[in-house]
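Example: L-Ala-D/L-Glu epimerase.
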Amino acid sequence: MKIERIEAIPYAIPYTHPLKFASGEVATADHVLIRVYTDDGVVGIADAPPRPYTYGETQASITAVIDQVFAPQLLGLDIMDRERIHAVLRRTINNQVAKGALDIAVWDAIGQAVGEPVHRLLGGWTDRMRVSHMLGFRPAAELLEEALRFGELYGITTFKLKVGRRPLALDIEACRVLRDGLGDDVEIYLDANRGWTANEALEVLRRTEGLGLTLLEEPCDAKEVLSRRRLVEKSPIPVVGDESVPTAGDVSRELLSGGCNAICIKTARSGFTEATEILGLCTGLGVDVTMGNQIDAQIGSLATVTFGAAHEATSRRAGELSNFLDMSDDLLADPLRIVDGTIAVRDVPGVGAAVDEDKLAAYRLD
Ligand code: MUC
Ligand code: MG
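Written out as structure tokens, the predicted fold is:
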């Protein structure tokens, strides 16, 4: 089962409702579809969503690093030799999204080759994940309307509110309006994408006391080491590391230095293999995890469900799985469905991300 060919196909699908947050705005899913072909006809699939304003990877850089750096070294390796595949990927630092997609595509190929669903190969804990929906920058009344609508339509009862890099009063008002309108049974947590200073984050925590917020994600730049440590010590709710912890090494550093006390795992930037290492670190140290979303399309969201449902610790909280609802279309042949606030894994060999070839032909850019 040798790797015979690797394809990196850039494509673009517009959003119907762009998502705006402290680091940028996503109006088009300008992603890269990755396909790993083996010499016995298996094709592993994954999606790479570049987030240039966060990690510096772009659609062009992901395509280039796969075509020019990784593929030439991976061709001829057996898909079962994951440690050798990872030795190749590890030699080049950064480029986490390109590496994550290659890793997921290899796992997908392995699952198909051995005839097992990947969620079972990874751990097989459960068959679905609860969905958390991300609310971007919009007037508070519109956010409430969106949350109520998503609750009604999909049964979603967990919402992550994007905050930061705008007047604090706007963020605080949005928290209040959501809590008043959604009632006490709905979970609300915040993600500032480094949009505050640590002291501003403390002020927001003070002014939202009593609103029952559950998590505070990436409030400020992790490089504000001392202030952030102080924030983590004083915060009544877990401070979640997200873009500060794309690798297992980053997770170790941030947890050990007190920069956060919970970790957001994103399969888009860690693949399944490094996500497994990260999860092991977190469970070993007794630290909560969340399954995050890199503004994924459906193929990426299915990968997140596959990993998240496979493990007990990642299934405890709702995973961020619903951004694809704001896209005008998608490549996944059999669309994801959110039923009773959950998305199910696929009980087919591999991850189960078959691509609609007509749609790929329509949206591909190369
Ligand atoms: C998040 O949790 O920060 C925004 C950019 C990105 O890479 O992920 C999203 C959501
Ligand atoms: Mg985040």
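The chain has two domains: 3-115, 120-344.
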